[in-house]
Amino acid sequence: MTSNQSGLTRAQLRTPRAAAIAGVLFSALLLAVYCLMRLSVPADPHEPGAWLRGGVTYVAIALNLVPFAGVAFLWFVGALRDRLGAREDRFFATVFLGSGLLVLAMLFAAAAVVGAIIIAFHAAPEALIDSATFHFGRGLAYGLINIYLVKTAAVFMITTSTIALYTRLTPRWLAIGGYAVAVALLIGSYYVDWSLLVFPLWVLLVSACILLDERTQPVA
Asked: How many Å is the maximal CA-CA distance in the chain?
């Protein structure tokens, strides 16, 4: 076997598994971040900030997990693009990559705002509670997650599903289901707070299908 053939074989074996593992890791970390945040931070963006007095251990753990979730998601996106190879369309590839990067940007920005709120509270506890500064930061983090991240995540899901339909990256039923999940994410996030969980769960399902597809492929 030549070196070129050996390299191609290793790439074929490595890329699907890398995408699947990265997707599973991202899903698990983002689900953990969300659950830890909900254990301490109320869903209501108008609450006065009493949760800061009750301890921010869970919030601090969640904020420290965000960078690892971001790196896993970036690896997931890169591995998917590598798996597409020459089948990748420039237009959809641009939207796919751009929306994925925007999801990370919104996630990191929201985490930074929440971290800034905690630092400001420790610097001046009495001055921050129910202050204009707190409500500004709380509203900014809420908007980044529930408006901008949700919409860019829906665009990412729609674009990924479209690519999957044309390239058979995932089963057809999963690609079509991605459209429905994206719509549910766009509409449901305004009424059901837990609807934000559908994005990491969808990534987990895509990763599981990729890993299963790799195991069922015959070895050349």
From this structure: 71
Q: Counting beta carbons within 10 angstroms of the beta carbon of residue 78, is it exposed (0 to 12), middle (13 to 18) or buried (19 or more)?
A: middle
C-beta of residue 185 within 8 angstroms of C-beta of residue 150: yes
**Are 203 and 23 contacting, i.e. CB atoms less than 8 angstroms apart?**
yes
**Domains of the chain: which residue ranges?**
12-216
51 HSE (CA, 13 A, CB side): 23
* Residue 138 CB-density burial (10 A; 0-12 exposed, 13-18 middle, 19+ buried): buried
Identify the H or E element spanning 186.
helix 172-188
CA distances 118 to 37, 122, 180, 210, Å, are 13, 6, 37, 39
d(CA 211, CA 160): 17
How much of the chain is helix, strand and coil, in % rounded to 5?
85, 0, 15
CA 107 to chain centre: 8
**Residue 130 DSSP code:** T
pLDDT along the chain (220 residues), means of 10: 46 63 92 91 83 86 95 88 68 84 94 92 83 89 88 90 82 87 80 79 88 59
Task: Bin 171: left if φ > 0, else alpha if -120 < ψ < 50, else beta.
Answer: beta
Other CB atoms within 10 Å distance of the CB of residue 16: 22
